[in-house]
Amino acid sequence: MSIEDDQDLLGLKRIGALIGQTLQEVVALARPGMTTQDLDAFVADRLKPLGVRSTPGHTYGFPGFACVCVNDEAVHGVPGGRHLKDGDLVTVDLEADLDGYVADAARTFVVARANRRDQQLRASTRAACYEAIARARSGVQTRDLG
């Protein structure tokens, strides 16, 4: 889609804000013992009453509202009965539309707390990411950023 007027921009901002807020709420909600289906149900219960639709659900028949992956699972995981454990790395990927405007975002977070080694790994990874972002510019090869 192309943004042709202020209405288009407002529509994109609205769905983007709803997705962003919902993902923040999922991160705050996730606890050991919950299932990936519990997280998905929260997302659906939060967004459906607002008229928001799961884009993968209505486009491809995806069985969940959001994609939920744990630890080393591949992207676009189907929510189900897997129980979250302390220290699990969870990614919730949410693509949704409202009034014809689509937004897609994901959050990756650790359930409860992680051990010191995991915390150091995340901090180092975050620092490397921001260093690469700072060096990214036209003409720089992605392999050089890596």
Outline the structure in words.
The chain is an alpha+beta fold. It has helices at 6-29, 36-47, 55-60, 116-135, 142-145; strands at 53-54, 67-70, 89-98, 101-110. Strands 1, 2, 3 and 4 form a four-stranded antiparallel beta sheet that branches. Strand 3 and strand 4 form a beta hairpin. Helix 1 packs antiparallel against helix 2 (36-47).
Describe this structure in a few short sentences:
The protein is an alpha+beta fold. 45% of the residues lie in helices and 18% in strands.
What characterizes the major β-sheet? 4 strands, antiparallel
End-to-end separation: 31 Å
Main structural class: alpha+beta
Question: What is the approximate shape?
Answer: flat
Number of strands: 4
By DSSP (H or I, 4+ residues per run), the number of helices equals: 5
Question: What is the average per-residue confidence, as pLDDT, rounded to a whole number?
Answer: 93
- The succession of helices and strands, N to C, reads HHEHEEEHH
Beta-strand percentage? 15-25%
Radius of gyration, taken over Cα atoms and rounded to an integer in Å:
17 Å
Question: What would the keywords be for this entry?
Answer:
alpha+beta, 5 helices, 146 residues, 4 strands, single chain, flat
Strand and helix layout:
Layout: H1 6-29, H2 36-47, E1 53-54, H3 55-60, E2 67-70, E3 89-98, E4 101-110, H4 116-135, H5 142-145
Antiparallel strand pairs: 1-3, 2-3, 3-4
